[in-house]
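Handoff note, outgoing to incoming analyst
You'll be picking up this chain. Sequence as last confirmed:
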Amino acid sequence: MKLKATLFFLLVALQCNAQSSDFNSISFKKADSIALSYKNERLTNLPELSYKLTSHLTTDAERFRAIYRWVCGNISNDYRLYFKNHRKRQRFQNDSLKLKAWNDEFKKVLFKKLLKKNTTICTGYAYLVKELCNLAHLDCEIVQGYGRTSMTTIETLTLPNHTWNAVKLDGKWYLSDATWASGIPNPETNRFEFHYNNGFFFPNPKLFAINHYPVDKKWLLLDRNAPTFETFLENPILYNEAYLYLESHTSPKKLHNSVRKNENIFFEYQLLSSPELEQIYFLIDSGSSTVKTKPTAVKFQNQILSLEYTFKRTGFYDVHLYIEDNLIATYVFEVKK
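Most recent structure output, in case you need it:
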């Protein structure tokens, strides 16, 4: 029994460390080059596409990378389709028959758009990654769950609203999100624009869990201290650029915080690389004004970034953390006397 327990906890420990750094010895340049060389390829023959993307690569990690990069670079996100589906699912959430009928109808529309126009929503991204992987003999699964962005209304987050993938490589499961990695909405037109974000390729599961929560908790890939769904709903807001800078997020642990005037507030993160400390700042919105300000203290040691800030006045404040002009995280503080 002791041996079984030891093996179990060893497996858990291995899963907790399943992230991109496991493949630092592998160059993905060839995989990326292959993915880019087949730009605008159609989806009429998935076995052929999978073969083109993977047949000249030697490791499973590279094969997955080529598939993932191709999907991220060739499939656009249909925001209108996403919001239409979201409204319908909210409308029918208490009527199982109507919800099933809508889901069945929506799947037909979803895959028709994917195959004919190379556009879809998260479900189509995850489906396509899985299909191309399975054709390349890679063990890949679709993960359904909840995704949180700055636009998410927590009070209505009652149904799963996001989908991503888990892939098994060298005996470990790794997470990835092709939807969020593929691009962003244009701030003026709200139309999708391709803008690849490598941070969603095998991120640290602890960081990923801040704004991804699977229906099946095993896909958190975390140990017995895995967060609850209630904890997930309380998390601060992380933005896509956070995945380019952060290995993990330590504190503040919640979006909404209550502090005292003149009390030191501590922010802590483990970073992937060394930042320009002079380019770390806060934008603090009081509701009537927005002020750009530096932390009152900054420390960077052993890849741990520690920041401090103190409010001199009472009130409610939205605090936005920036690193090198990239929006990383948002917190809300109620400052009391």
